Amino acid sequence: MIGMAGQVWVSLISVGGVVLGGVLSYLVQHRTQQSAERAEQQRRRIALSETRRAERLALLERFIEVSAEADRLLRIQFPLPVHDAAHAPFLDLNRTVWHGLPDGESVRDHLEDNRSVFLDAAREVMG
Questions:
Q1: pLDDT in tens, the chain (127 residues)
Q2: Exposed e or buried b for every residue in 24-60, given b needs 16+ CB within 10 A?
Q3: Where in the chain does DSSP place strands (E)?
Q4: Which residue among 9, 100, 103, 114 sits deepest, i.e. has the most Cβ atoms within 10 Å of its Cβ?
Q5: Cα separations in angstroms, 90 against 24, 57, 76, 85
Q6: In this structure, are residues 110 and 92 in contact, taking their beta carbons and an 8 Å threshold?
Q7: Which residue in 60, 127, 114 sits closest to 83, CA to CA?
Q8: Residue 110 burial by CB count (10 A; 0-12/13-18/19+): exposed, middle or buried?
Q9: pLDDT at residue 25, as a whole number
Q10: Cα(118)–Cα(126) distance, rounded to whole angstroms?
Q11: Distances 26 to 13, 16, 19, 21, 32 between C-alpha atoms, Å
Q12: For residues 85 and 121, is the Cβ–Cβ distance under 8 A?
């Protein structure tokens, strides 16, 4: 009987070890999978951010090209005061691209004064 009880205990300890090993293995695999998923999500966020930044930069470059072309055409086709008024927002935009904005100021706010002066000068010539 004692021999049989010893064998039962050995079997129970063995089964307990297998169960404990299985639980630990599951927890490690689950943790590894979560970590891999977080890393993949982070990689996707970074890739999306880089894509958006590249798109914004391309749009900004295109805008500057169009502004420069408009600046040249205004110089040729309109009186100098209109050209000067149009050139000021272009210079503001160019400075903003290369040097950034003053603290707490939006691009729109930064460009608004000179844009209004240009529109007023253009209206005066056209009217």
A1: 666 777 877 888 888 888 889 989 999 999 999 999 999 999 999 999 999 999 988 988 888 788 778 778 878 888 888 888 888 887 887 788 788 887 878 878 877 888 888 889 888 988 7
A2: eeeeeeeeeeeeeeeeeeeeeeeeeeeeeeeeeeeee
A3: none
A4: 114
A5: 64, 17, 16, 9
A6: yes
A7: 114
A8: middle
A9: 93
A10: 12
A11: 20, 15, 10, 9, 10
A12: yes
Taking the whole predicted model, whether its pTM rises above 0.70 is answered as: no
Contacts by residues 73-80 (CB-CB < 8 Å, ≥ 24 positions apart): 78/122, 78/125, 79/125
Give residue 16's identity as a one-letter amino acid code: G
CA–CA separation, 29 and 26 (whole Å): 5
What would you measure as the largest C-alpha separation in the chain, in angstroms? Answer: 115
Which tokens is 16 given? 């307990």
